[in-house]
Specification:
Layout (H helix, E strand, L loop, with lengths): L7 E6 L9 E6 L2 H12 L3 E6 L16 E12 L5 E18 L4 E7 L17 H21 L4 H9 L3 H11 L4 H8 L4 H53 L4 H16 L3 H17 L4 H15 L12 H11 L4 H16 L8 E4 L6 H12 L3 E5 L7 H4 L12 H9 L5 E5 L12 H8 L8 E2 L6 E2 L5 E6 L7 H5 L2 E4 L5 H19 L7 E3 L1 H10 L7 H21 L4 E3 L1 H8 L14 E2 L1 E8 L2 E13 L4 E4 L4 H16 L10 H4 E6 L13 H13 L2 E2 L3 E3 L2 E2 L5 E2 L4 H10 L4 E5 L11 H4 L3 E5 L2 H8 L9
Parallel strand pairs: 1-3, 7-12, 7-13, 8-9, 9-12, 14-15, 17-22, 19-20, 22-25, 25-26
Antiparallel strand pairs: 1-6, 2-5, 3-4, 4-5, 5-6, 10-11, 16-21, 17-18, 18-20, 23-24
Length: 785
C-alpha cells in the first residue's frame, strides 16, 4: 500500500473522534469538506480526519484543529437530501499533522504516521513481549467484559473480537470505540501516543463508567422496589376495604371521612365554604393516608371547621349598665366612654349598624389596651388582642397561600378561631409600629380589614374563601398618628386618650392600682394603708409620665417592701406615709416644683409633645463677641432648626422695634442650645420660645420663670397653631408653671384640658409674638407699640 503522505485532504470533524481500527459513518455538509472528500476519492480513497476543538466554528484555523488525527480509508459514500453526504470510513493509523499545505478551497496537509507496536506499516505484531503487558491486556479485557455485562450496549461479536486481540495499541483503540465517552475524553485519548499508557487510561475510564452504571442500576432497583411495594400496598388496601365492607367494618380512613362529613353537616357552613370543604374531602379520600398531601388537606379542613362562620354573642345594649361598668374599670377618659355609649344607643334603634373602627391614640401607660378589654366586657363580646408591633409581612394579615411549605392563615383568621364567634371585639394593638419590606406592607392588607364597606368579603390567602368581618368591633391603639399611612388613618375614628393630671392619677391609684397590687400579693386591704399625702408624693417625686405604668411599678415596690417589713417584724398593719415612701423608694427622682425658681436672661421654658406625652423643654441662648455666627446644639431636628433660623431672621428684621442694635448680627455670635443634647428633639412648636430667648439676651431682659409657652412663628411675627395642647398643658402644670402662652388658633383646644388644671393656670392667648414678649419678659417695656 502506497500513501502520498505529503499532500492528503483533511476534514475537520465536529462532535466526534475516530480511532484507528474503528469503522464509523458521519455526515458532512460544509463545502470545503465535500471538496476534500472528492479529492480523497481521486487519491486512492485516503483522507485525514481530525477533531475540531470548537464545534461551533464554521471555518476553523490551523490552531483550532487537533494536531493528532486518524488516517482513514473511505468505504462508502451516500448522498442525502439538502446536499449533505454520509461517509463510511475505517480508521487505519494515528497520524500527526506536520504542516498545512493549503486551507482554501479545502484543507490539504502533510502527515507523519505515528508508529506503534503492531501497526501494519511495520508488518509485525508483538504478541506480548513482557509479562507486564500480558497482565495489562488481561486486566483491560476483564474490566471491558464486566462493562459489557452491566451496560448491555456491547454486542457479543464485538466482545469476542476483543478477546482475540493481543496487541496493546490495537486493544486500547478498539475498546475506546465501544465506550460511551465524552468528547473531551475522546480527544484526550487520541492524543496519548504511548500504547501502554493509553491502555492504562482506558482501564481507568472503564472503571469510572462501571461505577456510574452500577449506581444507576442500584437506584433503578430501589425505585422499582418502591413502586412495586406501593402497588402491592394499594392492591392489599383495596382488598381489605372490600372485605371490611362485607363484614360491616371500616378502616381509619373511612372513619375519618365520616367524622369530617358529620362535622361539615353540623357546622352549618355558608354554601361556598361547604362546597369548598366537600371538594377538599373528596381529594383527601382519593389520596389515601400514605400521601404526604393528605396531612396538608386535613389541616386545611380543620381550619375551615374551626372558623366560627355563624356563632355569635348577643350584645348587651343596656346603657346604664355600660356606664357603670366603664366607670368601675376606668377613671376619667370621658371621650371614650361617651363614644361607646353613643354606639350602644344607636344600636338599640338600628340593629344592623356596623361596628365603628376606633383608634385610641395616646402616650404609653394611659390604659388604651385595658379600655378595649373593658368595652368588650361592657357589651358582652369575646375579646381578642392582635399585637402588630414589628409586623412587616403582608402574609401575617392575609395568610400564606397553600402552595407554600408550612402555610398558615393570617392573624385575622386566627383571631376569629380564638374568639369562637364571628362578632368579637378585636384589638389591633400598636398599629403605628408596623412597617413594610420586600414581602409587602401589612398596612395595605389592613385597608380592607378596617373598611366597613369591604370587609364583609375579606379573603384570606390560605382559606381561599370569603370571611365576613363586618360584625367585628375593631379597636386599634397607637402612640402617635405620624407613622400610620393616611389611607389607613382615614378608615378609623380617632379618639385621643391624653395623659392624666395629678388629681386623676391620685384617684386611679386609690381606686384601681393599690387594690390591684394588694390583690396580686394576696394582702388584705387593711394590712397596708396608703395615706393621701404618700400617694401624691409618689406621683410628684417618683414619676414623670403621662400614663400610670411607672406609678404602678412604684406602688408595687412599696407594697413588696411593706410585706417584707411585716414578715420581719410580725406586725399586722403598715401605714404608708411620706417618710415611708422616701425610705422605700430612696431619694426623690423628680423635682418639678423647683424648676426655674428665678428669672433668668436668655432662658425660656417651652412646651413640647412627644409619643410619650407632654414635657417641658427649656431653651437657652447666649451671645458673645464674634462675626455673627448662629450655632444650634442639642440634637435638634430639621423642623426645630428651621424654627431657630426663622426666629433669628424675625429678630434681625425687627431689631429697631425691640431697641436692639441693628448690627448685632455682625458683631456678636449667637448660640441657641436645648439641654439634654443626647435626646433627639423635633417638632413645629418652638418658634416663639426661641424668639423670646433671643430678644431676652439681646435686650438683657430676664424671662419670667413661671411662664411656659408653645407656638410656631412666621417671618411676620404671627403665632401659628400647634398640636398636643392638652398634653403640653398638663406637663407645664406638673412642672410648677402657673402661666402658659398658647396660639390664638389653639384656644378651642382648651376644652380638652381638665378644669381642675385650668383653674390653677393663667392662660395667655397670643396672636402675635409681641403678646408673647409682653407676657414673658420682666419690666414695663411694651413691645409692639
Amino acid at each position: 500500500m502506497k500513501i502520498d503522505m505529503q499532500n492528503l485532504p483533511l476534514i475537520p470533524i465536529r462532535g466526534l473522534t475516530i480511532f484507528p481500527y474503528m469503522v464509523m459513518h458521519f455526515d458532512i455538509g460544509r463545502k470545503a469538506s465535500i471538496m476534500a472528500l472528492e479529492e480523497a476519492m481521486i487519491k486512492e480513497q485516503y483522507i485525514v480526519l481530525s477533531t475540531q476543538l470548537d464545534e461551533r466554528i464554521e471555518s476553523p484555523s490551523e490552531d483550532e484543529i487537533l494536531k493528532i488525527g486518524t488516517l482513514c480509508s473511505i468505504k462508502q459514500i451516500l448522498k442525502l437530501p439538502n446536499n449533505n453526504i454520509r461517509v463510511l470510513v475505517e480508521g487505519l493509523y494515528r497520524v500527526e499533522i506536520i504542516k498545512y499545505n493549503s486551507i482554501e478551497p479545502f484543507y490539504s496537509v502533510e502527515i507523519d504516521i505515528i508508529e506503534e507496536e503492531g501497526n501494519e506499516v511495520q508488518g509485525n505484531e508483538v504478541e506480548g513481549e513482557a509479562e507486564g503487558n500480558e497482565v495489562l491486556i488481561k486486566l483491560a479485557k476483564n474490566v471491558f467484559r464486566e462493562y459489557a455485562d452491566y451496560s448491555g450496549v456491547v454486542a457479543n461479536e464485538a466482545l469476542s473480537s476483543v478477546e482475540e486481540i493481543q496487541n496493546i495499541a490495537k486493544l486500547s483503540d478498539i475498546i475506546c470505540s465501544y465506550l460511551n465517552l465524552r468528547q473531551e475524553e475522546m480527544q484526550d485519548m487520541i492524543q496519548v501516543l504511548n500504547p501502554k499508557e493509553r491502555l492504562e487510561k482506558v482501564i481507568v475510564l472503564i472503571k469510572n463508567e462501571l461505577e456510574m452504571i452500577k449506581l444507576e442500576v442500584e437506584i433503578g432497583l430501589k425505585v422499582r422496589d418502591s413502586m412495586d411495594r406501593m402497588q402491592k400496598e394499594y392492591f392489599l388496601r383495596e382488598q381489605l376495604k372490600v372485605i371490611q365492607e362485607e363484614l360491616g367494618e371500616f378502616d381509619e380512613n373511612e372513619k375519618e371521612d365520616k367524622e369530617y362529613k358529620a362535622k361539615i353537616k353540623k357546622a352549618k357552613l355558608p354554601k361556598a365554604v361547604k362546597e369548598k370543604a366537600l371538594y377538599e374531602l373528596e381529594r383527601l379520600k382519593s389520596l389515601g393516608s400514605f400521601s404526604s398531601e393528605g396531612g396538608v388537606i386535613q389541616t386545611y379542613l380543620d381550619w375551615l371547621l374551626d372558623i366560627p362562620w355563624n356563632a355569635t354573642t348577643k350584645d348587651n345594649l343596656d346603657i346604664k349598665n355600660a356606664r357603670k361598668v366603664l366607670d368601675e374599670d376606668h377613671y376619667g377618659i370621658e371621650d371614650v366612654k361617651q363614644r361607646i355609649i353613643e354606639y350602644l344607643a344607636v344600636k338599640n334603634i338600628s340593629k344592623s349598624l356596623k361596628g365603628p373602627i376606633l383608634c385610641l391614640v395616646g402616650p404609653p401607660g394611659v390604659g388604651k389596651t385595658s379600655i378595649a378589654r373593658s368595652i368588650a366586657n361592657t357589651i358582652g363580646r369575646n375579646f381578642v388582642r392582635i399585637s402588630l408591633g414589628g409586623v412587616t409581612d403582608e402574609a401575617d394579615i392575609r395568610g400564606h397561600r397553600k402552595t407554600y411549605v408550612g402555610a398558615m392563615p393570617g392573624r385575622i383568621a386566627y383571631a376569629l378561631k380564638q374568639a369562637k364567634t364571628k362578632n368579637p371585639l378585636i384589638l389591633l394593638d400598636e398599629i403605628d409600629k408596623m412597617s413594610g419590606n420586600y414581602k409587602g406592607n401589612p398596612a395595605d392588607a389592613l385597608l380592607e380589614v378596617l373598611d366597613s364597606e369591604q370587609n364583609s368579603s375579606f379573603r384570606d390567602h390560605y382559606l381561599e374563601v370569603d370571611l365576613d368581618l363586618s360584625q367585628i368591633l375593631f379597636i386599634t391603639t397607637a402612640n402617635s398618628l405620624e407613622t400610620i399611612p393616611r389611607p389607613l388613618l382615614d378608615r378609623m375614628e380617632i379618639i385621643e386618650v391624653s395623659g392624666y393630671t395629678n388629681e386623676e392619677k391620685f384617684n386611679i391609684s386609690k381606686k384601681y392600682l393599690i387594690p390591684k397590687q394588694l390583690k396580686e400579693h394576696t394582702i388584705e386591704d387593711k394590712s397596708i394603708i396608703f395615706s393621701d399625702n404618700a400617694i401624691y408624693y409618689i406621683i410628684d417625686h417618683y414619676t414623670r409620665e403621662s400614663g400610670v405604668r411607672s406609678l404602678e411599678r412604684n406602688i408595687a415596690a412599696v407594697v413588696r417592701k411593706s410585706i417584707t417589713y411585716i414578715v420581719k417584724t410580725g406586725k399586722n398593719k403598715v401605714t404608708i406615709n411620706v417618710n415611708t415612701v422616701m425610705k422605700y423608694l430612696g431619694k426623690e427622682k423628680y423635682t418639678f416644683d423647683k424648676v426655674l425658681k428665678e428669672d433668668k436672661i436668655g432662658v425660656v421654658t417651652g412646651m413640647a409633645w412627644t409619643a410619650y406625652g407632654g414635657d417641658t423643654l427649656p431653651v437657652e441662648v447666649a451671645t458673645m463677641k464674634g462675626s455673627g455666627k448662629l450655632q444650634l446644639t442639642g440634637q435638634l431636628g430639621d423642623v426645630m432648626k428651621e424654627s431657630a433660623n426663622a426666629g433669628f431672621s424675625y429678630v434681625r428684621s425687627n431689631s429697631f422695634k425691640y431697641n436692639i442694635d441693628e448690627n448685632f448680627y455682625k458683631e456678636r455670635d449667637i448660640h441657641i442650645h436645648v439641654p439634654e443634647g443626647a435626646v433627639p428633639k423635633d417638632g413645629p412648636s418652638a418658634g416663639v420660645t426661641m424668639i423670646t430667648a433671643l430678644v431676652s439676651v439681646l435686650t438683657n431682659t430676664p424671662v419670667r420663670h413661671n411662664v411656659a409657652m408653645t407656638g410656631e412663628i412666621s417671618l411676620t411675627g404671627r403665632v401659628l397653631p400647634i398640636g398636643g395642647l392638652k398634653e403640653k398643658t398638663l406637663a407645664a402644670y406638673r412642672a410648677g408653671v402657673d402661666t402658659i402662652i398658647i396660639p390664638k388658633d389653639n384656644e378651642k383646644d382648651l376644652e380638652k384640658v381638665p378644669k381642675t388644671v385650668l383653674s390653677k393656670l393663667k392662660v395667655v392667648i397670643a396672636e402675635h409674638v409681641d403678646t408673647v414678649l409682653n407676657n414673658a419678659l420682666t419690666g414695663d417695656i411694651k413691645y409692639g407699640n
